Amino acid sequence: xxxxKIEELTERERERERVRLRHTYNDIIRLENFLSSWQEFxxxxxxxxxxxxxSLHLIDNLVDLHxxxxxxxxxxxxxxxxxxxxxxPRSIHKAGVADRLLHxxxxxxxxxxxxxxFIFDSxxxxxxxxxxxxxxxxxxxxxxxxxxxxxxxxVLKCDIKKFFANIDHQILKKILxxxxxxxxxxxLLRQVIDSFETPEKPETGLPLGNLTSQLxxxxxxxxxxxFIKRKLKVKYYLRYADDFTALSEDKQYLVDLIxxxxxxxxxxxxxxxxxxxxxxxxxxxxxxxxxxxxxxxHRVLRTSTKRRMLTKLSKNFSLESLASYLGLLSHxxxxxxxxxxxxxxxxxxxxxxxxxxxxxxxGERKRTRCQNATDCQDWPNSHPTRGHPRRDPE
Length: 394
What we know:
Blueprint: H1 2-18, H2 25-29, H3 31-42, H4 49-56, H5 58-71, E1 80-85, E2 89-94, H6 97-115, H7 131-145, E3 154-159, H8 169-179, H9 183-193, H10 211-231, E4 236-240, E5 243-248, H11 251-269, E6 279-282, E7 287-289, E8 292-294, E9 299-301, H12 303-315, H13 319-329, H14 335-344, H15 346-355, H16 362-372
Antiparallel strand pairs: 1-2, 3-5, 3-6, 4-5, 7-8, 8-9
Helix pairs in contact: 3-6, 6-10, 8-9, 10-11, 14-15
């Protein structure tokens, strides 16, 4: 009976892989899709000059874009390049309004199809995923690998070197061709992919700033995810963009994984692991992943992030920044840090607390109950910074 169920599951997976994109080129370029994409694109951008100018003649611009795409005369425009520090320097390339609108239109049609192809434990740029879901999943894997913290859990953490800049165009187009039969859709995707190249590396690289880049890199790395899960059979594996981890109670097992991963990335995807960002360490010693340092029973904010946060609040304070940082801190064991921040500006902290429902750790809930109870001895382990954060809101 068990074998029959396994065969049914594998058959379902094979059938799902055989299903190709059913949407056509006309579904992407129809005016209704453009109008819906425009409403999504407008969020937070209404007051920007280029967006405002485009909106003054919105219908004319949409009709013109539709005509170019229908006649196959569309050519992707140039990018406006600038740099940000987040915290390390990053090169961002911003496309024109019409091109970004088209990116949204493509994304609205392609994302639902490709999202079903991705593994569950891919958390970057996906609906109902994100960093908070990823760190909670990491905590779950840590408990499983350590047999509920009764054994030593080893963590392999890796990073891909210059991820976006080294995406190979030909490999990406080949992967897309395996999923999409419509030649017109493939032509449109080629226009977007070939619109950008890494300097001195022809036919390589995707721009940081395109909505389509977020989807395309997940499509690209899904090949690696499937290799890890189906060929190497790694049980406790999760990935966020170019950062990925694997957990096991056997250190040698993780050591043996590194050359296999590296070889697949180099031969199949033309990517390479960052030699200075590969490490294997125990969970007890603290694992730095997605901005938090993780331990068996708690997690704390990365030291560099904490310093940057305190510096920004002291130099350029605003209620929005305070609310944002307090929301971030609510996902870890940061009671003392929150107390330090709110004690500096208690009136502002009170306003923020009223505006948003901040999550608190289990330890803090017990501590609150202790203060209201007649006998505090009924509440053991009521230290305010211990316990586990509540799950992410839906």
